Each structure stands twice: as C-alpha cells, then as structure tokens.
Amino acid sequence: MSNWAPRFRNGDRIMSLPGLPRCPGPIDRRTWLQLGGLSLGALAGGASPTWADVLAAQTSRPSHRPDGFSVILFWANGGPSHLDLFDLKPSAPAEYRGPFRPIRTAVPGLEMNEQLPRLAKLADKISIVRSLHHERNEHSGGTNRFLTGYSSVARNLPDSEFPEIGSVVAKQLEQRRADVAPFVGNTQFYGGGPAYLGRAFAPYMPSPRRESASGNNRYDPIPLYRTPSTGDDLSISPAGVLNLQRRRGLLNSLDTLPRALDHGGKLDAADAFRRQAIEMLASSRTRNAFDLSLESEASRQRYGDTHWGKSLLTCRRLVEAGVRFVQCQATFRLQAETGRTSNWDDHSVNSHIFNAYREKLPYFDQSVSALIEDLYRRGLHERVLFVFCGEFGRTPRIRNQDASGRPGRDHWANAMSVLLAGGGLKMGQVIGATNRRGEEPVERIMNSNCLLATIYHQFGIDTAHVFRNNAGRPIPILTDGEPIEELL
Q1: How distant, in Å, are the alpha carbons of 181, 184, 191 from that of 37?
Q2: Distance in angstroms (rounded) separating the CA atoms of residues 454 and 468
Q3: Maximum alpha-carbon separation in the chain
Q4: What residues of the chain score a pLDDT lower than 70?
Q5: Which pTM value belongs to this model?
Q6: Domains and CATH numbers, the chain
Q7: Would you give the DSSP letter of residue 47?
C-alpha cells in the first residue's frame, strides 16, 4: 500500500493523516523536479525512499575534521588467508604453513608473501594489523559483524541488520560538495547495507548486481569504472545509479539539465535539498571520476589493464573528486582449472588455494602498489586511508576435502590480518601477533571493532552517537572498541 496520505490545510500548516492512501495522480512538472531531487544513494538498486529519507540524506551531521578525510576499502569478499598473505608461518608444521615463503622488508617484523615484491618495497608506507578477531564464521554474518560492529541475529542475511561503516559516514558527514556522492561502491556486499538508516545512505553504485548480496560466489567481477555497457548511462547521469528502465522517459536527457538551470535562473518548484541533489546528478564532476580515459596512458599502465587495476585507479580518482568512502569488492576470475569461485572463499571444493594465490597476487601486487605510491606521490596519504581486508581469515590447518585432493582453507574469524596505508596514520609497523600456527592472537589482542573505531576517529565521528532503528530503539554507532593507539 502507498504511504501517501491526504493533507488538510490548518491555518498555515499542512497536516497529514497517516495510514490513509492517496493516489498521487498524474506526474506534473513540479513532481518531475521532485523526482529528480532523489539522492543518488536512495536510487541505487532501484529502492523507493521516503521524502524523510531524502531530506535526511541531505542534512547529515557536519564533520569534525576540516581536511576531507576519505577511505578506500578494498574488500576481499570471501575471506583472505592471513597465513598466505601477511602472517606467514614458515616454521609451522607442513599442514599449516603452505608453500609460500615470506619476504623480509626494511621494517622489522613486517614480512609478506614472496608473490608481493612491489608491496614489500613499500613497507615504510604500510602497516599490518595481525591480531583482530570476532565471533562470526559465516560470510554475510561475518561481513555484518566486521563492517558494523554488531553481530546479526540472522545467518546468511543478504542485507545488513545494522548500518555498515560507509553508510554511517554518509549519514554523519556533511556533503561539502553538492555535486559529489559521499559514498560510492561497485556493488552491495553480502551482509552489507545501510539497514535502518535507509536506502538514502546506501552506496552510489554504477552498475550493481543483486547476486553480490547472495551466497553466489561465482559471479564475474563487477566494475566500478566506466565500461562500454555503462558508457551511455554515464553520459546521462553519474553511472547507472538511476533505474533507467523505469525512468528513462523522464530522465533521458539529464545532460541538458545544467543548461536548463541556467536558462530558468532558478528552480522555483524545488527546495534547496532537492536542488542540491539535482546538481549532483547534472554535474560532470562525479561521472568524470569514473572515466579512466581522462588518465594518462602511463598512469593506466602502472595500475594495469585489469579489473583490479582499473578499479583502484577509479577509487583514487573518486577520493580526489571528493568522495568520502569508496568500497570495492576484490573479486577475481580464476582460470577454470584453478577454481570455480571469483572471490576469496578458497575452500578445497572451490579452488586450489595456492594456485589461486599464484594467479592473482601478481595483479594484486601491481595495482595495490600503484595506488599506495599514488597516495604518497600526489600528497593524498595524509587524508586518504587505504584498507585491504575481508570478513575473516582462513583456517590455519590446510584442508583437502575436494575429491581431487587439492588444498584449501575454511572460514576462520579467530584471527585475520588487515593491510593499511596512508590516512595520516603511523605507517611502517606491524601491530599484534598470532601464535606459531596462526590460530589466534597472542599479542595486542583486539576486537575487530578497534579498526572501525580508528576509522571513525579519523573522520571525527563520535562512536557514542545514537541512531534509532526501525522499532525506535536507540543504537549507538559502536558499543565497544577503542582506536588503535599505535596507529594514531
């Protein structure tokens, strides 16, 4: 049933009687302008937000930081193996350690997989946290737990029960530029989402696919960057955020909107909130950030002509344009003989985990190193934080459950590693340690909320701030977790 209600004028006030439906009737010019004012996040994924959602999206709390702090979250959906990336155990028994050898770096104690030689040379520009943990061992529950700070009631939930960090940032920070989306992602995470903050605070997604919020682990990588299939939509509005199948008739010439604004002088039918959203849709700033043809050929080659290279180069362009939180799945299409999955869920039945790493880590090394180098070369490292992690680590003991006997590792929330670079934090260090088999933290043991608390601290967001869920219950941003002192 529609949420429209009849309205009666009472003196100078208009009163609504909730619960009584009203047909909105034909769409006139004023309504068209109001439709154009819906925020990017509200329209992502075809959602239908209320006017309250729209207004709330444009009246977020101001940031305590004047420097425009931003985050790039490169999300290894499925769960990357800490023992095969940044917490190798070469002295552990064979059934734990795997085939990779660690590379030593100039930073004492900071070692990483031999497949990452470029990253190893940047050791002074990164930090590794090895001692985070939480209690959820399933994908969507682990994602909800890691990105919100709360454990969900449901298992295998496609949509988060609590707001993920990017949605909280979009809600809390004032959007200083009307023509830039505060929160951008390539698609929804499995177990992610804005929850009770409303779809107005979902990420702006160029070409989202709903299967990314399901248990499907075989879909092709979803581009964040401009592609031939999204090019037409990008010339109309920033990427494919509008549901153009439903609304193409109304918005098929959005590029002419700036000229219409100039010609009319003002949009007397749109209030300040909706006009701001229209300006965001009509501006070239956001959509140009997705256009990699505006980068030099040398820059594109440094990142690599790959899904990861183009994704991370786009992430850099987005934060330079003013986006405050960018998240991108680190999915990768393996060769068929290596595995069937496109994420990091490297069970024996999904892939040969070590061959999968041999395939993808050289591309990871090139694209992530290029991004970190750019953050420092372009002076972004003081205000842009790069984070690479997934919902949990992998089991220390290698499993051979597949009929072929190939190796794999299962879900493991007891320990995980996170790679950080920039963000005005202290780099060139390792924080925490796990035991000799990588089973659990034994030094600087931290709930994964400590990472969230650190990021919120850098944004200037008070984690004690309370939202109200759909039942009206007050829920603080975090109930526990302190910023990681070694990073500050």
Answers
A1: 13, 18, 28
A2: 23
A3: 81
A4: 1-67, 174-178, 229-283
A5: 0.81
A6: 25-59+226-289 (no CATH), 62-224+295-487 (3.40.720.10)
A7: -
